[in-house]
Amino acid sequence: MSEQPPNLLQQLGRSSRAMYSAFEGRVGQALPRWRILKALDDLGTVSQKRLACHLQMDPGALTRQLKPLEAERLVRRGTDPADNRQTLVTLDAAGSALLLAAAPQRQAFFDLALSGIDAAELEATLRVLRVLEQRFRGMAAGER
C-alpha cells in the first residue's frame, strides 16, 4: 500500500488535536467537558453507565471528567434510589447556564472552521470519516 493512508491518519490526529485546542480557546471549555454537559442537557438525568455509552467514552475517563464538573457544581451525581448500583448524573443550573452562555461561541467556532468548504467536499469528507470510524471500532472490538 502507498504512503497516503498513514499520512491521512497522521493528519487526522493532528487535525483532531488542533480542533480540541481551538475549541477550548474559542468556546472557553474543553471539548470533552462540553460534550458531557451537552449530552446531559439533551438526555436529562441519566445513569453514568448510559452517559458513557451515549458519549462512546470509557467509563473511567468519564468519571475523571465528571469529578471536576461536580466540584464546580455544573453537574450533580447521586445514587439511583431504584438501583443502588447505579450513579445518576444531572446537569445543574450552572451547567445549563454555561451551555446557554457559550452557545454563540460554539456556533461561531463551527461556522469559522467550516467556512469556504463547499458542500460536496464536506459530504465526501464525512463519508471517509464514517468509514474510518467503523473500521476503527471494528479493530478495537478485535475484528479483522
UniProtKB/TrEMBL annotation:
This is MarR family transcriptional regulator. One of its GO terms (biological process) is response to stress. PROSITE patterns: HTH_MARR_2. GO terms for molecular function: DNA-binding transcription factor activity. InterPro entries: HTH_MarR-typ, MarR/SlyA-like, WH-like_DNA-bd_sf, WH_DNA-bd_sf. It comes from Chromobacterium violaceum. Residues 5-134 form the HTH marR-type domain. It comes from the Bacteria.
